[in-house]
Amino acid sequence: MTLLINARSETVNDKPAFKNAMRRRRCLIPADGYYEWQVAGGRKRPFFIHRRDGALFGLAALAESWIGPNGEELDTVAIVTAAASPDLAALHHRVPVTLMHGDFDRWLDCSEDDAAPVMAMLRGPHEGEFTWHEVSTRVNHADNDDAQLLLPITEEQRAAEEAPKPKKPTPRKPPPPSVDDGQGSLF
After folding, report:
1. Alpha helices in 25-143 (DSSP H)
2. Which of 4, 49, 81, 95 could link 132 by a cystine bridge, Cβ 3.0 to 4.6 Å?
3. Any idea which fold 6-39+56-129 has?
4. Residue ranges of domains in the chain
5. Each residue of 157-168: pLDDT tens digit?
6. pTM
7. Please, is 78 exposed, middle or buried when counting C-beta atoms within 10 Å of its C-beta (0-12, 13-18, 19+)?
C-alpha cells in the first residue's frame, strides 16, 4: 500500500482514497510555515515559507484509517494541495491549502456529510500573502529541532554547507577466508 501524503484539491472529491474523508474527516495541521526544497547549483536548498504577516494558519488536511496487509489499522493524514500563485510557483507549482483562524470551524464542520460547502476554500494563497527565505540544510536531519531552522541562512553558513566534506576513510575489508582442502579439518 502506498501512503498518500498529499491530496490534489481539484480531484479530492473524485478519488476513492479521499472522497469519504473529504465529507467526514476533515482536519487541520496548525502551522507557522512549511519547507520546500529547490535544486540550485546541483544542491537541494531548503526554503521556509510563511505568511507575510507572521500569523499562524492551518493546513487543510484529510484523515483516514486503513487496514494494512497484516490486518493492522493505520491512521493517516493527507495535506490538501492547490496550484501555486505566480510568486510561490517560483519554488513549486503546488502549495498546501492554508486556512486562517476564521475558517477553521467551517472546514472542520462535517455534520452535513457534504463537502460542497467547503470546496471554495480549496485554493492556494493569494499572491503576496506568503513569503519565503532560504534556510540551513540542517532542516534535512530530524535530530535538529530548534528555532535556528526558521532563520534565513547567512553567507557564512551557506559557504560552510557548500564546502567539500572530508572523505571518510573506507573501511578495510577483512581478508577472504582461507580455502580449506579438507585436510586436518573435522568439519
Report:
1. 104-108
2. 49
3. hypothetical protein yedk fold (3.90.1680)
4. 6-39+56-129
5. 888 888 887 777
6. 0.80
7. buried
